[in-house]
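Example S7 (structure tokens).
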């Protein structure tokens, strides 16, 4: 295989790996019944006029399986963090005692678990679409190389390799989704 062709396949592989990493990062944010500080990863708070992640203005810890505590480094940030959590609509209500914010995670109902599973499946579908788009782009590159003199057999082999790669990553998405669904549905 030509060096350029191998470069396209390696590029497709690394981009598909990034799609899997993104899926895993998104799934961590979905609550599965246990307290997890990463559910606040995407949450920002106004810190002296600049949107700043909560983790950079406060210490987020797990007190027990259903309780998170957020202790800001500056007391004046308590209200801003509390407003940010409420605005994020995470399904939790922060309790501010003047020193720290406690977040009690209620046990998940069957209905809420099913909602979370639907969101998990939606995230998985986004990843599958991204992987298929990467496949399409890689195959287009192979076809361009074929127009510029690459043999049909080599192009067919490369397309097969790209399809095998796609199938491998789609199976990995399915495996990741199954694990998360099992985690969400277990009581």
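Recovered sequence:
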């Amino acid at each position: 295989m030509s060096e350029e062709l191998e470069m396209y396949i390696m590029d497709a592989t690394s981009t598909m790996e990034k799609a899997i990493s993104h899926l895993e990062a998104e799934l961590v944010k979905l609550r599965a019944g246990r307290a997890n500080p990463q559910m606040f990863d995407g949450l920002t708070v106004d810190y002296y006029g600049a949107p700043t992640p909560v983790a950079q203005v406060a210490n987020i810890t797990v007190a027990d399986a259903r309780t998170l505590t957020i202790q800001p480094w500056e007391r004046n940030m308590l209200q801003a963090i509390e407003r940010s959590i409420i605005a994020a609509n995470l399904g939790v209500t922060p309790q501010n005692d003047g020193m720290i914010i406690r977040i009690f995670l209620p046990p998940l109902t069957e209905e809420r678990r099913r909602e979370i599973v639907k969101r998990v499946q939606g995230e998985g579908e986004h990843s599958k679409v991204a992987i298929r788009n990467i496949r399409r782009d890689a195959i287009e590159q192979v076809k361009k190389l074929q127009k510029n003199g690459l043999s049909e057999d080599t192009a067919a082999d490369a397309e097969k390799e790209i399809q095998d790669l796609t199938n491998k990553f789609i199976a990995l998405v399915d495996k990741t989704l199954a694990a998360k669904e099992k985690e969400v549905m277990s009581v």
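Notes on this example. The two ends are 51 Å apart (CA to CA).
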